[in-house]
Amino acid sequence: MSCQGCVSNLTNALEQVEGIRKLEVEVGSAVIEHEGVSTDALETAITGAGFSIGEPVFHWRDGSVWKQSAHNTKWCLIGCSIGDLGTIAYFQFVWTDSGWSTMAIMMLAIMNGLLTSIALETVILLKQLPFQDALRTAMGMSLISMIAMEAAMNITDVLLTGGAMLSLQVIIPMWIAGFLTPWPYNYWRLKKYGISCH
User: Looking at the structure, do residues 76 and 106 belong to the same domain, yes or no?
Assistant: First the structure.
């Protein structure tokens, strides 16, 4: 389990099993006190909630995990792009005589991209979690993935334009680099923890 949504899903599934006396579910663990509940009944409830039992064998060939991790990466890319591209566009088209260096603009774009990604993830998670839990989960989601995405997008921009500039010819390569760079990491993370937060 990697988020509070996971905790809620597993708690709800286990509460349906007759004979459970006490249940403590947290991110990463579950403690169950029961009387007369078969192992099969517990395993059925756990796997029915979408979790696996035991240590899964890791491999890179799980098509459903690639699909789900692509979906997660897509939403992260949308969130990051709002702040990142918006910041670059502001300096390119509005505050053209700012005097800011390319590095300063890119650092601000990265920070704004991270913030808008967290905001979008929070809105998405509000469907299954209360606001505080949704915000905490969004902030705890893969910061490594978001930073890699932001770095790839901005490096691509600088390499193709020589600065912090947007055009149709650079936005598409920025999105491709921003998507492909963290996608394997997101697959690994999703495969390792066994469930998605989206």
Answer: yes
Residue 16: in which H helix or E strand, if any?
Answer: none
Say if residues 120 and 164 touch (Cβ distance below 8 Å): no
Other CB atoms within a 10 A radius of the CB of residue 7 amount to 19
Same domain for 71 and 96, yes or no, is yes
Distance (Å, rounded) from C-alpha 104 to C-alpha 34?
A: 58
- CA dist 106 and 104 (Å) reads 5
Q: What is the pLDDT of residue 9?
A: 86
Number of structural domains (the chain) is 2
Q: What is the mean pLDDT of the chain?
A: 89
Q: Which CA distances in Å does 28 have to 6, 174, 192?
A: 9, 35, 12
Query: Can you give the pTM of this predicted structure?
Result: 0.72
What's the pLDDT score for residue 154? Answer: 97
Spatial separation of the C-alpha atoms in residues 180 and 182, rounded to whole Å: 6
Angle at 140 between CA 136 and CA 144, to 5 degrees: 155
3-state secondary structure of 32: strand
Q: Which residues of the chain carry a pLDDT beneath 70?
A: 1-2, 55-56, 194-198
